[in-house]
Amino acid sequence: MTNTRIHGKYLFRLALAFVGMTSCNVLSAQCPASFTEAPGSPIPVGVNPADFGLGDFNGDGKLDLAVPNNGIPFTVSILLGNGNGTFTEALGSPFAVGTNPSHAAVGDFNGDGKLDLAVTDGTDRNIWILLGNGAGQFTLAGSPIPAGYSTTLAVGDFNGDGKLDIAAESYDTNDVFILLGNGNGTFTEALGSPIAVGTTPASVTMGDFNGDGKLDLAVGNLLSDNISILLGDGAGGFKEALGSPIPVGSVPEGIAVADFNGDHKLDFAVANANSNTVSIMLGDGTGGFVSALGSPIGVGSEPAWVAVADFNGDNKLDFAVTNASSNTVSILLGDGTGAFTLSGPPIAVGSRPAYSAIGDFNGDSKPDLALVNFFSNNVSILLNTSVCLRTPQQATESLIDSINILINQGVLNRGRGNSLVQKLEAALQQMDRGNSNPAKNQLGAFINEVNALMNSRALSASQGQSLIDAASAIISQLSG
């Protein structure tokens, strides 16, 4: 077995998971995904960049990147997005943090409306909290939090108190720490934490796997070749699901959670580093999973990470997988049943791409890719250039899918999410009747509600702006 990967990890990103944000009304095979490198890419950062945190760190409505640099002098680089696919390093960046930082999670941990960072310390078995000032600068918030040798973090509200909590797998003790946020940038370990999982856990992500409205966890266990499913009780406690752990390929690393077959139950995809495959596991809605037809899928050499979006705009989820030893990223297009096919040859990037993240970096409402290249000491930005045509109805249906993802992954509660969906469904009904002005009015009401959610911090600026941009594009199309 080769285990040269520095970190196997998954963090549920607070940035919007893009579904149908490009446009296409033909089959996936007739509408391949395409990407081009952004001007100025690759972007130099520190030594051995290991991960991304995505968010709007300076409040300008454009996605920024936080990049932990695993090598000496152990820093986090902050790259501020210019909105055109290019980035500028923030004043004061890079910021010193711990020893061997390997992962950065984003959230407002102290309730001031500004995004902060949680960064794993790969040597001292700690998590450092860096508080943001809203302008792109960060300062350490007191002493670090003991949490084992963590290579990944998942951030969500695990006990329903409206404050962000952290789940951190511990690589060398075979368990997961649950840290409950106090709302002021400090954390308290939950009762019953840490929770035992498989051998050498190296990735953790979250979603509501059994449909009870409470966040659950999926943990990738490198050396037992399986995924532990931990069902949340809504109070910060977790217990293993019936049938867990779930066997997958050899050395499972990055995990991505989404509904791949359209049954409104969360599934997951996992990169199997030693098998050179990706396993697609379909959820049954109770916390159980079965392998999809055609799974596992062959990809490049040593796949490390999976990122999910609708890249070609056919309203079906696709995924990108970084191939660490091939120095490429593979794009696989979904057919909506849980099956996937390669979209052309893999895309060459830098040396040892360790992690990828998805966001709209140039403001065209298409999901772009950012990748950290561990040995190249830089970041590649790949802009989505897929071009197809789609009706306003199809675009609205895609927007409904995006809201449902935010509900299923715990970003929006069902009440808020369903209210948004109702406005979009009302707009669809008006479109079907040929009434463009009432449809635009409903879309305008949707935009107003998204703005209110952003103002109350129920949605981040980047999440809300992605939804607003998509709705505005539909209004423009109806006005055309």
Descriptive account of the structure:
By secondary structure, the protein is of the alpha+beta class. The chain has helices at 392-408, 414-432, 436-455, 461-479, and strands at residues 35-37, 43-44, 53-55, 64-69, 75-81, 87-89, 95-96, 101-107, 116-121, 126-132, 138-140, 145-146, 153-156, 165-170, 175-181, 187-189, 195-196, 201-207, 216-221, 226-232, 238-240, 246-247, 252-258, 267-272, 277-283, 289-291, 297-298, 303-309, 318-323, 328-334, 340-342, 347-348, 353-359, 368-373, 378-384. The strands form 7 sheets. Strands 1, 2, 33, 34 and 35 form a 5-stranded antiparallel sheet that branches. Strands 3, 4, 5, 6 and 7 form a 5-stranded antiparallel sheet that branches. Strands 8, 9, 10, 11 and 12 form a 5-stranded antiparallel sheet that branches. A hairpin with an 8-residue loop joins β18 and β19 (216-221).
- Low-pLDDT runs: 1-29
Average of the residue pLDDT scores? 90
Major sheet description = 5 strands, antiparallel
Cα separation of the termini? 58 Å
